[in-house]
Amino acid sequence: MSNPSPAAVATPLTQAPALRSITFERGDLELSTGLLDYVIRNDVHTWIRRGGGLVGFGEVARFTTSGPGRFAEGQQWWREVIAAADVVDPLARPGTGLLAFGSFAFSKTSRHPSRLIVPKIIVGSRDGKSWLTYITDDDGAELSPAAAETALASFLDDVEPERKPSQEDRLAPGILTEEQWMTAVSRGVAHIRDGELSKLVLARDVVAELGSPISTAQVLRELAVRYSDCWTYSVDGLIGSTPEMLIKVEDQTARARVLAGTLDRSSAPAGEAGYADRVLAGSEKQQHEHEIAIDSLTRQLEPFTRTMTSHSEPFVLELPNVWHLASDVTAELAPDGEGRVPSSLALVEALHPTAAVCGTPTTVAGELIRELEHLERGPYAGPVGWMDAVGNGEWGIALRGAVVETPTRVRMYAGCGIVEASQPTAELAETWSKFRPMIEALGLPVPLRY
Ligand SMILES: C=C(O[C@@H]1C=C(C(=O)O)C=C[C@H]1O)C(=O)O
């Protein structure tokens, strides 16, 4: 008798809910605003880039977990949900049909709950075409386009008021003061000089204390408009706009965008053509930092692929706040004996944490992060995104973001890759350039000295 496959012997984690879903095509969205017309409630789930993507409303199922097995447990739960579901999806495109948004803790030692959330309604848009998915756990519910439109309309009744900046808004220090964080950077550099590791990513937090409650929807709209080349995410209080794609799976193809190497645009001389190319692409320190990040990603992805391509040189990615050295990687996924390619979440498990947000070697860097940062990263620098029922998904790295801890307290996170040539003051300034998208979207002034 042959051995049963691991999936067959795994014990169910929970009683998977019996979900039913229907997806249907809708008219084209308003070209100028696209999905943003739907970002009007604070509790929306979003994944938006260049006006397209997904906006989710409500919740019909949720799975939470923590620890080293968080990705594997998430995959198992999702398999059980899919097996028990009745899905009607005539469109069958990436992002249509049954779908979960997700956010995972950065650290395997974190108690912060990683989560997968299945919304009740999803408005999707891609290449100018839009669709609606309606998901229910209610046996008796009518599953029709009309019922879906009615459910969507009831969510859209509840519009969040705009927030005006208040006199009492302020930025408060996080866990470490600036001086303490710079000391941590110096210690990191010393460990690198000692040859224990080649790269370490150290992060810090600052807290926005607001005089009036946040309008999350307003912040998300601001981010999505200003940072349209980034992926604007919102999952259960984790919000931001990330320029870094950990992994995206569409059918047989996987894509990643690796960033490492940063230059603040606010300190750049005006009108000097080619400044970013010269200072960023021409810097040995930045190129070295970037090489470490791209090597770590391609090495981890390789076993899952048939072919993999990336440009031999990184390009300069221009964002409103910074320039980055960036590399795009495209891979054709290798099917297993049964013709199946790994799901997006299986690849996340293999790739996280990359050197872009942890360091190299991973284990040494992870230990030093715990020792030097004194920060509970929570979902910061962890995977955030969505996945559908056939393995497609997009998982960004939760950067340039914040956790809404209470309606008036928002904790922001930013970090930097430290290599042997790193200077603590320059790294501190770099964290401010990375806080800037969130600080500005919240309507707070950016501290002047940066
Ligand atoms: C860690 C962050 O960003 C990462 C670090 C970078 C760097 O050090 O140059 C660049 C992009 C990201 O991979 C962050 O934004 O918090």
Automatic annotation (TrEMBL):
InterPro entries: ADC_synthase, Chorismate_C, IsoChor_synthase. One of its GO terms (molecular function) is isochorismate synthase activity. Pfam families: Chorismate_bind. Keywords: Isomerase. The keyword tRNA-binding does not apply. It is an enzyme of class 5 (isomerase). It catalyses: chorismate = isochorismate. It comes from the Bacteria. SUPFAM superfamilies: ADC synthase. Residues 178-434 form the Chorismate-utilising enzyme C-terminal domain. Its EC number is 5.4.4.2. Belongs to the isochorismate synthase family. This is isochorismate synthase. It comes from Arthrobacter pigmenti. The lineage of its organism: Bacteria, Bacillati, Actinomycetota, Actinomycetes, Micrococcales.
